[in-house]
Amino acid sequence: MIASLRGRLIAKHPPGLVIEVGGVGYECEAPMSTFYHLPAVGAEVTLRTHLVVREDAHLLFAFATDDERRLFRGLLKVSGIGPKIALAILSGTSVQDFLSVIEAEDADQLVRVPGIGRKTAERLIIEMRDRVKDFGGAHLGLARAADEPRSAKQEASSALLALGYKPPEISRLLGAVGEDGMSTEELIRHALKVAAT
Description:
The chain is an alpha+beta fold.
C-alpha cells in the first residue's frame, strides 16, 4: 500500500494531479478540498494516499489531510459508494460538515452532492450514523461527550427511527410538529398524530 507521496507537483487539473517522486510521476485523483490546499506547480508537496486496485486499473487517490483520507475510506465501505462518489462528497463538503449532516440525518443536504440520489443519501445516513462517533472521536472534536444531553428533537428523531420511520419521513413529521419548547415525549406523540392523519 502506498500511504503517502512527497515530491514535486508537476501537474494539476481537477480531479487529476501528478507528483514526481524520485523521477517517477505518480498520477492521482483528489477531491476539490485537497486542490484548495495545493501549492503552485513546481513546488514540493506531501499528500496522504489511498490505492484502489481493480481488475483493469490501479487508482491512486490523494488527500491533504488524514481526516479526508479516513472519510474516503469510510465511504468506500458503504454499499453502492465507489471512489467517484466518495470524491464528489469530499469535493462538496468538509469532513466536519459531512459528519454533522450524518448526525443530523439530513438527507436533503446529501442529495445536493452530484451523483447522490435520495436512496443513496438514506443509505449513507443509515450506514454511517453508527460510525460517526467512532470515526470522528475526540480527534475531530465532533463526538458529543457521553454526559452531554441531546436535544428533544434529536431524541425524538432517534425514537421514530427505532419505530421504523425513514429519515426523510422523520424530518417531515418533526417539521410539521415544530418544536416550541416541547419535550421529547410531546414531540413523539405529536409526530405520531401527524403520521396517522
